[in-house]
Write a structure and sequence with these properties.
Layout: H1 2-15, H2 22-36, H3 40-53, H4 58-70, H5 74-87, H6 92-104, H7 108-121, H8 126-138, H9 142-155, H10 160-172, H11 176-189, H12 194-204, H13 209-222, H14 227-239, H15 243-256, H16 261-273, H17 277-290, H18 295-307, H19 311-324, H20 329-341, H21 345-358, H22 363-376, H23 380-392, H24 398-409
Length: 412
């Protein structure tokens, strides 16, 4: 393991300068050997024997902390690293490992302080800079993360994981062109780098969809079951009208990952559009099995049931969607259509108004309120007000347009 070799090497360098007694030296060497062999409990026993003679010797404390760290016993690791630093405050490696331990413990602020100390003591410390970048990203300090990832890349241009994360941070900062350059650099060094090609495909989806499709296919040529590539390629093909190609990709993904709720939802929607209502129902139920709180899946199931005339089941599904997301405008609207189908017009009006409360520019809700007030709950003034809003929002309906124009020509 690369990190383990680094830890051992650093400990050896510091140990070489220590005036050890013969017995402690033997115990420490035995601890190092056990550590290198992955026998961490044995390493701890040996290093504790060495520390019994020299309790303040920093490299021994560092090795003790490293062994506890490998065993994921982070509280003991923290104590050992802190004691190593107390003995030798300029111990950059101990500050770095303390930061790693604090990160594992979820103490992000303390971890950031420790890793910043490590970098201050050794500005070219690649591992510490990488951890600093990671912590900054986790804490949403994206400019600091970008700076640290760039520093790692400058120190070691072949550190591809740093370049990949730099690209992701640049995307988050709204700099897609710069991110594209970084991913291209990664592929220039390693043409088989799947994640860089995937990110380039994502960036090309809106402006160059065919290029994105080609990139996703290259990813799948290398990793045929790559979940994100399968999912995103399917969505992109569906957007391009290639439903027949999109459906098998989603089915392939769900065969491997049946709990992928988003893929199941997308499959259900596409199957419904293709008129395969029974298969669509199964896919949407699968989405809800994967994510019981998936409001959109419940909504789509309600729409499917309504289309199939299964009104009671449609109502249950839409009520579930609204319990999960009370401000779900589309679900309120669908509930309004369901009430209209059941001739419950006052309830329909309340549902359409709830849809508008959640989304004031919902023109179809204005249109259906106009219909309700024109035909079922006669109030022509309210009907015309909603029809005018429908037209103002870009709605098109020749009858409504004529009605609004006619009403405007009449004397008031």
């Amino acid at each position: 393991m690369k990190t383990r070799r680094l830890i051992v090497g650093l400990a050896l360098l510091l140990w070489a300068a220590a005036p050890w007694a013969h017995e402690a030296e033997e115990a420490y060497e035995a601890a190092l050997k056990a550590f290198q062999q992955g026998e961490y409990r044995r390493a701890i026993a040996h290093v504790q024997r060495a520390l019994s003679s020299y309790p303040d010797y920093a490299p021994a404390r560092f090795l003790l902390g490293s062994a506890y760290y490998q065993l994921q016993e982070y509280a003991q690791a923290r104590e050992a690293f802190e004691r190593a630093i107390a003995s030798y405050p300029r111990y950059a490696e101990a500050h770095y490992m303390l930061a790693s331990t604090l990160y594992r413990l979820g103490e992000l602020e303390a971890a950031m302080q420790a890793v910043q100390t490590a970098v201050r003591l050794y500005p070219r410390y690649e591992e510490a800079l990488l951890l600093l970048a990671t912590l900054a990203e986790v804490r949403h300090d994206l400019p600091r993360a970008m700076q640290a990832y760039r520093q790692v890349g400058q120190l070691n241009p072949r550190r591809l994981e740093a370049l990949l994360r730099l690209g992701v941070v640049l995307e988050k900062l709204g700099q897609p062109a710069e991110a594209r350059l970084v991913y291209t650099q990664v592929l220039a060094q390693d043409p088989k780098q799947v994640e860089a090609r995937l990110r380039l495909a994502v960036l090309a989806e809106d402006s160059q969809p065919q290029e994105a499709i080609a990139a996703y296919r290259k990813v799948l040529a290398q990793q045929p079951e790559h979940p994100e590539a399968l999912y995103r390629l399917a969505l992109l093909l569906a957007k391009q009208g290639e439903t027949g190609q999109a459906i098998p990709l989603l089915q392939r993904l769900l065969h491997r990952r049946p709990q992928h709720a988003e893929a199941a939802l997308a499959l259900g929607v596409l199957l419904a559009k293709e008129g395969q209502e029974e298969a669509a129902e199964q896919a949407l139920k699968q989405a809800l099995d994967g994510r019981p709180d998936y409001a959109e899946a419940a909504y789509q199931l309600g729409v499917l049931y309504h289309k199939g005339g299964r009104l009671a089941e449609a109502r249950q599904a839409l009520e579930r969607a609204l319990r999960l997301r009370p401000d779900y405008a589309e679900a309120h609207y669908a509930m309004g259509l369901l009430y209209v189908a059941q001739q419950q017009y006052r309830e329909a009006v309340a549902a359409f108004e709830a849809a508008l409360a959640a989304r004031p520019d919902f023109r179809e809700a204005h249109y259906n309120l106009g219909v309700c007030y024109e035909f079922y709950l006669p109030d022509i003034a309210k009907a015309l007000a909603h029809y005018r809003q429908f037209l103002a929002l870009g709605g098109q309906d020749a009858r409504v347009q004529q009605l609004v124009e006619y009403s405007g020509a009449q004397p008031r």
